[in-house]
Predict the structure.
Amino acid sequence: MRLLYIALQENEEALPIIDSIIEDNPSATVRRYPGMVRIEADGRITVKRATVEGRLMRDWDPQELHLHLISIAGNVHETDDEFTLHWGTAEEMEK
């Protein structure tokens, strides 16, 4: 299986998002670089709105992820509640 990843800027505003991704994807590997955090996984990476809101203590729109996004590898599936990376079709991501 091909590796998925999401790379985000490492700044104060992005850290709660990064911590939420790590919490929701426990099998993911975290690689820290100067100014960037890259989270890698096989199969799927999901960013859940509810988890991020719990850390930020405010409403959070998954579209805000794009403000801190550097790069991704994988197909994107977005809903109001989640941002998901997966290698496959949209139908497979719904499963």
Notes: Residues 3-90 form a domain with the Phenol Hydroxylase P2 Protein fold (CATH 3.90.56.10). The chain has a mean pLDDT of 93.
